[in-house]
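Q: What structure does this chain adopt?
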Amino acid sequence: MTGSDKPIELLVLMDSAFPWISGGRETGMYNLSKQLRGRIHFTFVTHYMPPRLRTNRGFADLHEWARVVPVWIFSRRSWPIPRSRGTVNMFWFARRARSVGRRLGPFDAVLALNGGVVAGSAFKLSRCWGVPMVINYRSHWAAEAVGQLLLRPFGKRLEQLELSNLCRADLLLANGHDTATTLVEATGDASRVVAMCNGVNTDLFRPREPGAPRRWPPDKVVFISNSTLRGLKGLEVPMQCVSRMPPELRRQVQLVYAGRGRWAPYQAAARELGIAEQVEYVGELTHEEMALVLRDADVGMFPGRLGVGTQHAALECLASGLPLVAYDFADYPSLVEEDRTGKLVAMGDEAGFQEAMVYIIRGRNRLAEMSRCARQKSLEYSWPRISDRFFDALRRTVQAQGRVS
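A:
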């Protein structure tokens, strides 16, 4: 369809209110499309978001280089059963996206996020035009879908749907090294799997200048969580660790939380543990605001219990010069080099997590060197590098089907 001097036309079925919200996958697609403008022309089919709810948290300029085609879905007010709304929207979006895509096409490739219902629509479009289907595998879709009340009885069927879509995809872009291994095991074909990983804006997220003032006292070791406030993030673990520390150590610690979600339960937990003075919530921040806050912290903390791939939040910490204290799951083993870019703790070992925090507090003279190593590690995940990897993998796949000369 295109010559070597023309961009690849890529259709992305984005089951999200992108660009009006800015979660992890939205941040990824925004940065990829921005870095690759001129080489790939992105068309996003997304959820429609009413103007009064649009906040454009940093993605307002997406329309300058990409096409966004919103699809109407059921709103919270128009759907009487809240738990079932997400389920209905998922199937409705998949159907409408297929219809819209057919009208806009043909394209050189079709991309879906994860291997669920929307990937089924991507497959039908790709076979209609004779182009590759690409899946950007970010999480275990079937497991998340079963978590919705209406889909629980269909767990086996959803597992089969996801596996079927993964096996018939022409290219599988894994969200990290751990997910790449999972995909190879699931499909039995390593040739279609690329460990693309997430990226980070290393220009925006960068360390604090030496000698520059910061918002917290210099005698405090500031541990920060820049993830969403959800139970699976284990955000109560650092609070429990601090509450068990000797008073002389506890006084040296400041726990800072930033992100979207309900803060009240965590605030109540801090009061109950008697460490309210050591805990601060700075709110839901834009990317620019988050970069400033991270610059003033010392250590990123990741005590989560569930997740896959390379986490955006962890990369933002590393790029800001913050070593990590993290449980040994997802792609953290690839990010954390012991005593260089952080401390890795066995999954669920709260005593070990506390020991890692104490080790850093007592050895705070090592923080400058760990900060340098953390920043150096993050450069492997800069968006230009990740975007080149994405483009090379997509171009090879498109060329294999004779779509690009």
